[in-house]
Amino acid sequence: MSGYAELFRRGRGRHRRRRRAPLKTIAVVSALVTCSAFAATRMDDEQADCVPRPGADGRASTLPAWCQDQAAGRPVGAPAGKAGGGGSDGVPHDGDGGNHSRVPAPPEPDGVYDRERCGNTSGRVLLTLDDWPYNDPERSVRIGAQLQSQGVRAAFFLIGKFAAQYPQITATLRQQGHWVGNHSFSHRQLTGLTDQELQDEIKGGVAGNLLRPPFGDAGERERDVAAELGFRICNWTIDTHDWEKTEGNPRSAEAIRASVRDASPEEKRNGVVLGHLFSNFPNALNDIISDLHAQGYQLCRNTGPVTDRAPNPLTC
Ligand SMILES: [Zn+2]
Fold first, then answer.
1. Rg value, the chain, Cα
2. Which residues contact 116 (CB under 8 A, 6 or more apart)?
3. Ligand 1 mean position to 29 CA, how many Å?
């Protein structure tokens, strides 16, 4: 797991949030760094297909042969029914996932675009839900409807190969007023890929302009390639650790709720909360929202349907 040292270097404050977490083993800490469902410590059968575990060196390990075929066959195209790309933020856009114009997007210098906040300058808190609800794909849109009814806009970062099988889910989420972003095609660790694989993973993901790299892991190369393809990196300020298991048991909704409630004001203001679609995070949403309100914070407002473009700065 020594490769995670790189993540610490690149994280730009990503780990300051660890101070409130209970003491854990080093192994768990390294898993926390990955901040995602696909940490080596939690691999349910239904969630493990085509998803490499980080190897001993912290890099993505080899995929099973059938997964490599799937990943290499061709990037999955943009989901049907996606809204048209207006390019309102100036980012060049072609929605077909291929034949990119190669017009480089402007770089994201530190201090201008804060990737941990996804450019959120609203003061409000953005809830984000990653990966896929493996046993219940429709859970995504039920969560979307629930948040919509509460006037809350969230961002969903769906794994491309699953989203492509259910294009109506992406379309419905956007219709419900939620941003849907790219979480790569098959959730490989981008920093372990060749340049070509990296491009294929992004192109095969959900069309749009926000990229949440699997495990939150992206360096300068990944940022630059993403920018060439029209994407900004979008990570988080609050990790709910909802993907974490203790003795085989998933993290409870109450523990997930507490991780948001007890986060610092700095992490909440203009903050971004990381949760997942397969965990107890959705079950904790009502309490998370009411806690934030009680503490005087607002959540990103749902003002109706959105396109596949999220604005920069992220006004919400
Ligand atoms: Zn993920």
1. 18
2. 12, 13, 14, 235, 236, 237, 272
3. 17
Strands 245-246 and 249-250: antiparallel
CA of 117 to the centre of ligand 1 (A): 17
User: How far is ligand 1, taken at its centre, from the CA of residue 158, in Å?
Assistant: 8
What residues form DSSP beta bridges with 38? none
Q: 50 C-alpha vs ligand 1 centroid, how far in Å?
A: 13
| Mean pLDDT taken over the chain | 76
Instruction: Report how far ligand 1's centroid is from the alpha carbon of 106 (Å).
Output: 26
Q: 37 CA distance to ligand 1 centroid (A)?
A: 5
Mean pLDDT to the nearest integer, 235-246: 96
pLDDT for the residue numbered 65:
31
Average pLDDT value for residue range 115-127: 97
Query: In this structure, are residues 182 and 200 in contact, taking their beta carbons and an 8 Å threshold?
Result: no
Q: pTM of the predicted model, to two decimals? A: 0.69
Q: What residue ranges define each of the domains in the chain, with the CATH number in brackets?
A: 4-75+108-294 (3.20.20.370)
The model's pLDDT over 275-312, given as tens digits with 9 standing for 90+, comes to 999 999 999 999 999 999 999 999 999 999 999 999 99
- Give the whole-angstrom CA distance, residue 159 versus residue 163: 6
Query: If you measure from the C-alpha of residue 170 to the centroid of ligand 1, how many angstroms do you get, rounded to a whole number?
Result: 16
CA of 278 to the centre of ligand 1 (A): 11
Q: How far is the CA of 132 from the centre of ligand 1 (A)?
A: 8
Confidence at residue 63, expressed as pLDDT on a 0 to 100 scale: 33
